[in-house]
Structure formats: structure tokens, C-alpha cells
Amino acid sequence: MFRKTTAVMISLLLVLSLLLAACSSNKGATTNGQANGNGDKPANTSGNEGAAEGASEEGVPKPEDLKYPKAFPDVPTPVDYDKSYAYDDMSKSYTIDIMLGGFINQPATKDMIKEFYEKTFNVKINFTNLTGEDLVNKTNVRFASGDAPDVVLLGDRPVAQALFKQDQLLEATQMLPYMPQMMSYVTEEYKKWATDDGKMIGIPRLPTFPDVWGNFIRQDWLAKLNMEMPKTADEVFAYAKAVTEQDPDGNGKADTWFMGAAGAGQGWGMMAGLIDMFGHRGWNVKDDKINNPMLDGTNKAFLEFIKKLNDNKLLAPDWYTIQWEQFKAYTLQNKIGMVNYPGWNLLQEQYSASQNNADTLKNWAPVPPLTSELNADGKLGPGGSPGGIIIISKKVGEDPGKMKRIAHFLDAVQYPNKYYWVGNQGGGPEIWPDYTKVTKNEDGTYFYDSDMVKLQNEMKPELKGMMDWQSVGYTLIWERHKYSPEFPYNEPGDNYQDEVRAYPRVTNYDMLLNLDGPTTNRLKDFIQKNEIAFVLGKRSFDDWDKYVEEWKKAGGQKLIDQAAEQLGVGKP
């Protein structure tokens, strides 16, 4: 039996190589958010070579004069660095407190990326990297206690809405004039998404993986099991049962399973994509009335399906509580029959885990949108959403110099600005000059190249926490890969991502809505607690109608009313 302890051990060996290609510190001393006040010049002013004491505001637009593009640029270009940040007096030193959700979520004993940023931007950085749910909880606690961080990179807009209503956040339009690179991405649609009651509550983040997440199946196992690509929920279940019971890896052991959530007990993780079989996963309009998966049976059907998988023991050990990185040990050691993943990353990670066996690139294939008795219209979930939101503490606005330094730093690490590559994929040429390089393609895009073997040898386990810096600005929207025998996963991986991008998707109504943040947060906690109870049999589906009424009383009805009003449709 492939036990959990074995999985964890293998995962620790794999995590460095996998995250280095994943296009995939404990909190420092509390800062009062003020400048250090020593007036020392930075040891290295390369963060803004042209800036001097008495920095110039020339060319910085007023908040009311900001121009929001209608769409992303086809091929972004870096801003004129020295001219763009001439407003920042680099002779002043500041302490910046940053929190974000990462992949490793533990400190690096020697964080070379942090050291580079501190030297380049003349700052001291307190860097806290946490899991998504821990980030939300820690953010709320720190703001409530009066110890607010300066910057938080969230994946959850409702948290930002709640804090803004508490008068805790700086309006984003106060900082955006100092962020010309970011302003090429803050589209009219993104601005609307980040606006609540006429105020811009934060800065929309670019998605890391833009609409390339999809269900991937072991097509080699399909062939061995004499099965076709599943098209319906029933066929998915039949495949799940066969994968678990018919020994597709041929080792004579009961050590293969269908899937796992890998969400660390905080949600459905990679299994969340299965809900699309049953209907629209978010707010939507049906028959000119507002609709939600809680109201039309979509959520119920999804949970019943997950319960059926669990009852039949078709899911991996600790399928709900295991963390994402640990779960990779199952996936990449050929123990899992379906995952939800970006295609390029899956193939690259499988190739690396197999000691560069190109035959393993044929193992996986994307699953086209699935259907069910409840939903005959096969489509993936909504696309085009931001990758989250950057919030800035209101106290930052009390120190204009510090606000400008934060704007300078955050903008300088956006694609394809001067320091974009520093913190991405475990460190770019500035950190690993002997092992990494960035090449500009003829079309103006860029290709990141690294010597994986040498880099993995240098990336010791105690350094892996610095990989979470890529959460600050990493995006694959414009990155290209080099097609050559040296990188056999690049072309099929890109093709798979193009295939998933091209699948039909349901309408993204969430981009048109601005629902109450605190209510949305309460409902999220309410749903998470109850959904797993239904799946584990701790609550009967006979209580479903009662549960829906509880959901309405917990805030669901309030959001129904708001969504109907904002979209100009009726209520059910």
C-alpha cells in the first residue's frame, strides 16, 4: 500500500524540482509603518538609478486623470524605468510589511530574493507567506488588532470589501498614479470589479494561470482499462471505480485512486472543477431571474457525486486534508487517475518526476467539458477573472514617501518590468546568474530558461520558502516556451493549455457584481463547514431544503436581493 508517510517523503524530494518549474519567514518585528528616518542612502540604487533626493512628480497623473484600457495589451512593453519612478526619493529608507498566500508557506533561512529587493529598493521587508485560508484569518486579526500589514496580496475580494467598509484600506486610486506598468493591465472591467460603492478598494492582480486550469485524465490508463474519454458524470464515476479497483499501474497492489481535493481541509481544491458537470458554479441568470448553484440543485448534485466517490473509497488517502504539494507525490508517482491542473505544468512536473522520461508526456490528456442528467450544456466555469486583489493599509497613505516606495516596488516587479524576473520561479538571473536567463522573442514576449539540474542542486531545502515571492507578480499570460528536444514538454504542454482555453465557458457574472463582502465571507465559512458534513455523511441530504433556508438566513437572501438588483433581473 502506498501510505501517506511515503507520499509525504516523496513529496519533500519532489517539491524543489516541481516548484522551480511551476509557471507553478516568520513574521518579522512589527513595524509602525513609518520611515526609518535615518536618511541613509541605499547601498545599491539600481532600483531607480535616475532618482535623487527631492524626487520629481513630473508626469505623475492625478487620480481623477487615470486612463483605464479596454483590454490587455497584445504584447506588453516595459515602462521607461528611470523616468517612471523619478518621483521616488531613493535616499530614504522604509520598512515594508507584506503578506501573501504562497505555495511553500514557510520562511527561507536565507532569502536571497528578499535580500535583493531590500538592497535594490532601500527597504527592510517583513515577509509573511501563508496558505490562502490562513492568510485571510491572519489578515483579519492583524487589521482588527491595530497591527495592520502595509500590503496584502489576497485571492479573495470579499475580504478587501469588508476591510474597506471598516475604513482600514487606502483607496487604490491614490497609489495607481505611481504604477504605470500596472496601469496597462487595470482595464475598465478590472476597475469595475475592484470598485465598491464608487471607491476602488484594491488593485486587481493578474492571474498566474489565465484560464488554463482543466481536468486531466490518465489516457494511458483509459487505454489499459479499454475505456473511452468520459463525457458524462456517470462515465466519470465508472472510470473512477475502474482506476481504483482494476490496478491500472499493474503492480498488483491496491494503491491507485481516482482523485483528491488536496486543499488542506479548506475546500474542494482540484475537485472543485467537477461541479461544472452539474451547472454554473457561480451567480448566474436563468429565465430572467437571478440564480445560484445553491438554488438550482447544482451544489447538491456535486456534493452527492463527491459523497458517492468517498463512500466507494475511490479517493486518495487524506483526500480532503492533504496539502497540494504533498498530494503531488501521489500524482507524480502514478497513483492518481484525474487532476485539475494547467497542462504545461502537469507535463513538466511529470517529466521531471520521471527522471526526464519523455514517454510520460503521453500519460495525460485534457478532459473536454462534461455533462450530467442535470446539465446537458457542457461548459467550463467562468473565465477572465483577476488573479486576486492587492490591498494597502490606510496608514500607508499617512506617509507619502512610503506609499510611493511601495508603489515603485510593486510596479517594478510586474510583467515585463525591470525586476519582474527576480522573484519568479525561485529566482531569475539576478539571483541565479549561472543557471537562468531571460530571452526576448521576436514577437516581443519573453522566454525564461534555466538549467534545472544545476539549479535544483543549488536550491537547498532551507531556501525553498523564497519561491513564494512569485506570488507578488507572476503571470503566464504572455510567457512563451522554447520548443526543442531539450524541453520535450513545452510544445505539448502549450498545446494542451491552448486546448483548455478554447473550451466553451459559462458567462462570468461575478465580474458584473459587487456583493456585500462581510456577508460573502460569512457564507463562505458557513458553506465550507456544511458541505464537508454532507459528503462525510454527518448531515443527510434529506435536510437539503432546510440547509438552503439556513443558507438564505445566513446571508444568502441578502446576496440574492443584491445580485438581482445589480443585474436588473427578477428573483426566484
UniProtKB/TrEMBL annotation:
SUPFAM superfamilies: Periplasmic binding protein-like II
Keywords in alphabetical order: Cell membrane, Lipoprotein, Membrane, Palmitate, Signal
Biased composition (Basic and acidic residues): 59-68
Natural source organism: Paenibacillus nasutitermitis
Signal peptide positions (record): 1-29
The protein, known as: Sugar ABC transporter substrate-binding protein
Entry-linked InterPro entries: Bact_solute-bd_prot1 (IPR050490), SBP (IPR006059)
Composition bias, Low complexity: 29-58
Region named Disordered: 29-73
Any coiled-coil regions, as ranges: none
